[in-house]
Amino acid sequence: MNDTILEVKGITKHYPIVAGVVRTKPIGWVKAVDGIEFSIRKGETFGLVGESGCGKTTTTKLILLLEEATEGAIMFRGTDVFSIGRSGLREYRRAVQAVFQDPFSSLNPRMKVRDIIEEPLVTLHGFSKKQREERIAECLDQVGLPPGSGSNYPHEFSGGQRQRIAVARALAPNPDLIILDEPVSALDVSVRAQIMNLLKELQDRFGLTYLMIAHDLAVVRYMSTRIGVMYLGKLVETGRSEDLFNDPLHPYTEALLSAALPTHPDTSRNEIVLTGEVPSPVDPPSGCRFHPRCPKAMDICSHIEPVLARMEPDREVVCHLW
Amino acid sequence: MSALLDVQNLKTYYFARRGVVKAVDGVSFSIDQGETLGLVGESGCGKTMTCHSILKLLPKPGGRIVEGQVLFEGEDLVLKTERQMRRIRGAKISMILQDSMTSLNPAYTIENQVGEVFAIHQKLKGRALKEKVIEALKLVKIPAAETRLRAFPHQMSGGMRQRVAGAIALGAKPSLIIADEPTTALDVTIQAQYLNLLKEIQAETGVAMMFVTHDLGVVARMCDKVAVMYAGRIVEKAEMKDLFRHPRHPYTIGLLACLPKMDAELDKLVSIPGQPPDLGALPDGCHFAPRCPECMEICKQKYPEERLARDEHYVSCWLVEK
Amino acid sequence: MFRIGINKLALIRKFPVNPGIPLLIVLLCIVMAIFAPYIAPESPTKQSLPNQFQEPGYVDKDGTKHYLGTDKFGRDNLSRIIYGARISLVVAVLTIIIAAFIGTLLGLVAGYYGGWVDSLLMRITDVGLALPLILVALVLAVVYGAELIADLIPINVVLVIGLLLWPRFARQIRGETLAIKEQDYIALARVAGCSPMRIMIKHIFPNVIPTLLVLCTLNVGYVILLEASLSFLGVGVPPETPTWGLMVSDGKGVIATYWWISLFPGLAIMFLVLSLNFFGDWVRDKLDPKLRQV
Lengths: 322, 322, 294
Ligand SMILES: Nc1ncnc2c1ncn2[C@@H]1O[C@H](COP(=O)(O)OP(=O)(O)OP(=O)(O)O)[C@@H](O)[C@H]1O
Ligand SMILES: Nc1ncnc2c1ncn2[C@@H]1O[C@H](COP(=O)(O)OP(=O)(O)OP(=O)(O)O)[C@@H](O)[C@H]1O
Ligand code: SF4
Ligand code: SF4
Ligand SMILES: [Mg+2]
Ligand SMILES: [Mg+2]
What we know:
The complex is a heterotrimer of chains A (322), B (322) and C (294).
Chain A: E1 4-18, E2 26-41, E3 45-49, H1 56-63, E4 71-76, E5 79-80, H2 86-95, E6 96-99, H3 113-124, H4 129-142, H5 159-171, E7 177-181, H6 189-206, E8 209-213, H7 217-223, E9 226-231, E10 234-240, H8 241-246, H9 251-259, E11 308-312, E12 315-318
Parallel strand pairs in A: 3-8, 3-9, 6-7, 7-8
Antiparallel strand pairs in A: 1-2, 1-4, 4-5, 9-10, 10-12, 11-12
Helix pairs in contact in A: 3-4, 3-5, 4-5, 5-6
Chain B: E1 5-16, E2 19-31, E3 36-40, H1 47-55, E4 63-72, E5 75-76, H2 82-88, E6 93-96, H3 100-103, H4 110-121, H5 126-139, H6 145-148, H7 158-171, E7 176-180, H8 188-205, E8 208-213, H9 216-222, E9 225-230, E10 233-239, H10 240-245, H11 250-257, E11 307-310, E12 313-315
Parallel strand pairs in B: 3-8, 3-9, 6-7, 7-8
Antiparallel strand pairs in B: 1-2, 1-4, 4-5, 9-10, 10-12, 11-12
Helix pairs in contact in B: 4-5, 4-7, 5-7
Chain C: H1 3-12, H2 20-34, H3 36-39, E1 58-59, E2 65-66, H4 77-113, H5 115-130, H6 133-144, E3 148-149, E4 153-154, H7 155-181, H8 184-191, H9 196-232, H10 244-251, H11 260-287, H12 289-292
Antiparallel strand pairs in C: 1-2, 3-4
Helix pairs in contact in C: 2-4, 2-11, 4-5, 4-7, 4-9, 5-7, 6-7, 7-9, 8-9, 9-10, 9-11, 10-11
């Protein structure tokens, strides 16, 4: 298929662990992301879920070129972004934008809202002052902020409004792909719906593609067309949103879904409570990484790593059961 | 039988340089023996201040209880001296906080910290103390408790630390535990474990709980009664199922409607417009009026006193007939 | 000798401060320095044998009243103190500018780039911090001699203190940069395609300004003490120059009898340094975002 916009090919990120005094030789590696593959198609929202520390943010950092990958490749419209030239990089910087979780740390407190939104335009060049002003006004309007807010500082806004500013900034250079790393987790419950609706509306209007990370499954369900489930640096299952929720294949997905509490006491759920804790990514379990906690573990699971099985179009699972 | 804890018209203000923050402004609720009350509300609505007022642990310069009663086992805690309070804290009412990384002292071993309660309140020493500590750790199902005595908090995972915090809280067999967002910092699968644990302990010991959270899913899982707090006041309180099935206050209705659901495909979420008000500058009349879809003339002028909507279901809203 | 003062001040810092009086004293010194020729009753270098060692309040033959007495050359103590403020403040301002500039630059670069750049710069900084400031200043000032530019700037003192002071700035600014670098808005600036230069100047620098201001005000007092110490030891400035340190030094042999010669310039040093420290604390409390929340 040719509508793939971003393809992640076996990327790996190992952070060195360095010991106190002599800081040269690493004494171990945090295997934050360990060979994951997925692709994102134009106009869809790809959701990435998983527990804290499983490598979601690291994946986005690799895609945003904020960290250098240890291995693997990322293809953007067919070109490898790790080896594109200067002009290619500039185009990539325009086309891929991001909104982060914390609306307090993602806006420079000493810059006016106008300058914050202008930033991606300035570095792109090729815009006159007047064009930039127009674009800023346009973006403010698109995210539902009053036109005058440009001359205020971020601290004059509430969490929800700040997240709108962050979205406006991401929209400014007319991107194709926006990476949303937990865009609503830090917001008040009553404000989350506003931001989620806004993001959906903008997607419809401008044909945006999203890579969305969240740990709240209901949020991912609402936003995403396809979902990837991560566990300890690996992708264990991907599939279309409704398939994955209605019929989880991987035991971890199943457990994750059952651990999410329904927001109504009358909703029934089958309860699978996992035992044990998430192991450390420094020294992940052998074989299937989930086997110490897996209710369906078999003998083979502890020493042979399962391989990816393609179940149906758009459905992949990494587990010996399949 | 009278209630275990009966809070009546509690007002706790924070006197800051830039004005008075009415963090808790006339809050009343009660908890019976062995019962769990959920206190839900958005960030900054005064939940933590309410908990701290009960134990009189207010932020030192500035925070003050200006009115109201906190009747615990028939005695008013507001009138107690610091000395008397010290005998109640930890022994009769204890607390579990959100962030076990900061609520446990990084400089002491688990044994020291759990042992402190027994040393202070039961004057235990030596072997007897150690046995008590192990017993307490076993109560919160810490695997291989004997081997963990010498561990320091940073050597344990978040879930385990939160269990230690639970062991400290439960140690002296209190009759009430105030849990201030005890699972917010935990992963969903770990949260599921912890909530189950609390339920089991409650069944075993019959301790009453005040469960503070902003997660309605947790409320649905844990609580017998719910109080919904908005901008320093309780706007609705009822039996848990009754509240979810028949919410009456427009804020509660909005809150329930704006959550994305796990089990249903939705096109657009219902959203509550605007953002939570600043507690230093509250609107006259109903605090929710600026965001309320049903706002009437009277709402803007006078705060609706609490009224009974049906059995044990109280609402502060002009829509509900007295 | 003046060192002790600083540690004592740390105790006083715990108290809440009102910037009014300290600010007034600092302003008074600045006014004295700028308008010295108009304020001072006499020339600070005018000698007069009959007026030697006169007590405060002495009125000489010409009817001039010497409010703070005179020294062994019959020079008016008050006038010398007023003129002395000039040297102190000029040295303070210039050295702080030098130190702040170098320190901020290196601190930003070290903090932002990290790695070997950071290691190298921080080792240099450590060496700088380990140098006994007063000793090195003393040695250098002696080697390069005493020279006043435009009758006002003891250039060697300024250069020496400035060059020795920057590590204090570099260390702090680096720490701050490290913290700011982790903020999401820096990551977003990189996503937007900003160059490291632009990130340091546009995104990080404005956020270290509060720290920089606090560092400046807190170090001004220290520099003034240092300059006074050097003058007291007789280095850096020509002997006839009116500076507070030199005046204290001049009177030290006769302090039992002619106490006013040393006492008043000593008090001037103390009040100015105290005020600057109080003021610095106040600035810090004002600018520290954690304390400002309330
Ligand atoms: N700069 C770093 N150096 C060393 N280890 C790191 C670094 N950044 C992340 N890690 C580790 O990599 C792992 C993955 O982290 P990451 O932030 O990607 O998780 P996440 O899935 O985004 O979690 P969360 O839901 O908590 O945001 C974690 O174990 C983390 O401790
Ligand atoms: N030390 C303090 N100084 C000034 N204001 C304070 C202080 N502590 C709390 N407040 C104010 O009191 C109000 C209530 O705070 P509280 O911590 O009780 O909220 P909360 O409901 O527990 O929120 P969260 O969900 O974020 O924990 C807030 O608006 C806050 O601004
Ligand atoms: S491979 Fe085995 S251990 Fe891993 S998830 Fe599948 S069944 Fe469980
Ligand atoms: S009192 Fe009025 S404004 Fe307040 S919630 Fe009820 S209807 Fe809405
Ligand atoms: Mg993350
Ligand atoms: Mg709280």
